[in-house]
What we know:
Elements: E1 7-12, H1 15-21, H2 25-28, E2 33-35, H3 49-52, H4 62-68, E3 73-75, H5 79-95, E4 101-103, E5 108-113, H6 114-121, H7 124-135, E6 140-144, H8 147-156, E7 163-164, H9 169-173, H10 190-196, H11 202-207, H12 210-228, E8 245-254, H13 257-271, E9 279-290, E10 296-307, H14 310-317, E11 328-341, H15 346-349, H16 352-371, E12 377-381, H17 389-392, E13 393-397
Parallel strand pairs: 2-3, 6-7
Antiparallel strand pairs: 1-5, 1-6, 4-5, 8-11, 9-10, 9-11, 12-13
Helix pairs in contact: 1-5, 6-7, 13-14
Amino acid sequence: MGMPPLTICVMLPRLALAVAAGARREELLGVPAALSPEGGTQTVGEVSAAAEGYGIKAGMRLGEALARCPSLTLIPPDPVGVLERWEEMLHALESIGAAVEPALGPPALACFDAGPLGRLHGGLDATLAATRQALGGPARLGVAPTRFGAVAAASRARARRPLVVSGDLAQFLAPLGVDLLRQRPELAGLPEALEQLGIATLGELAALPAGAVADRFGSLGVLARRLACGLDRPLSPRTPGELVSETLELEDGADGTQLERMVGVLVDRLLARRERRGRSLRAVVMSAKLVAGGGTWHQQVVFRQALADPARMRLALVPRLGLLPAPALSLTLAVERFGPAGGDQLSVLEDAADLRATRLREAVRQARAAAGQEAALRVLSVDPDSRLAERRAVLAPFEG
C-alpha cells in the first residue's frame, strides 16, 4: 500500500529527568524539580512542568532557580542511564524497520521515513500503532512532509494522540513561535535575535524577503527561513550499531591507581570479545556509577586513529579518569564505533625504530597542517665552539 512522502517524529520530553528520577518518577515530576548542575557548571538541567510554572528553565543559574522556587527539588543526573534508555528506544524503533535519525535532546527526538514502514505494516495508522507498541511507553508522535514539520507536529501533539499534518505545511507552521528553531542545534541562538526584532512566529519569518534575511543573519537565517517555509533537508539515518561493552564493579568506591588497573582490565576484555572480529576501535565511551547519591558519569573518547593496541588505548583512557567527580562503584567501557580490521599491525610488522620514525613523521605532518611549515624545525649544529650562542646552531626545516 503506497503512502505520500511523510516523516514521523518521536519526541520524548524530559527523558533525562524521568530517567534520573527512577522509581520516584511520578512523585518528582509532579512537583517543582530539576536536574542538579553537572560537570562543574552552576546551571540546572531539565526541569519538570511544575518548575516551569515558576519560570525555571533548563540552563538557568542554580541561584536564580532557587530564588524563584525555594522548594525546588534537585535530582542528581544519570547520563549513563539516559544513554542506555535512549539506545533501547532506538533499537526498538529499528526492530520495526525504521531507519532512524536520532537527536538526544532535550527533548529527545527520533525521526524516520514513514513510506517504507507504511508498505511494510499496511498504512500510516498501522505504522503509528507499531511505533507506539515498540516504544512501550508514552511518547509524542508527529507526522509531516519534512523533518522540521514532524518535530513541530510532535511538539504540539498529546502524549497518546499523534498529530498528522495533512494540509499545507507552511500554513501549519505559520502561527508557531520561532522557539521551534532551537530544535536545530546550529540555530539555537537565532530565536532570541529574531524576537528582539519583533519576529515572533515562523509565519512572520517566512514572509520576510529572502535577501533581507540573508543580509542580516547570513546562512543561518537562510536555513531558518527555509524551515519556516516548509522546506528541509532529507533525513540522515544512523547506521545501526552493535552494543559491545565490559563492566567491572567494586563493593567500595574506587579511585586513583585502582581505577587505572580497572581500565587496563576492561581494555583487555573488550579486545578479547568475539564480537570485535579482529576490528580496531575508533571511539569508545567510558562510564561510571558513582558512590551513593552521586549519580553516574560518562566520557566519550575518540582515538586519533583506529586502535587495537591495548597499551596505546590505556594511554588515551587513563587521563580521562581525572574528570571523575566522585569515587566510582563500577566502571564500564563500551565500543561506540569500530574501525577497520588490523588497525595496529605496524606494531607487529615493524621494529621499534621504524615505528617511532613513522609516528614522528605523522606528528610533524599534523603540526604543519595546523600551524604552517615552520611548526616543525630541526636544530643543526654549525659552530659549537663559537663564543656567540647565535652561531653555535641554526634552525632548519625538519625532513622526515
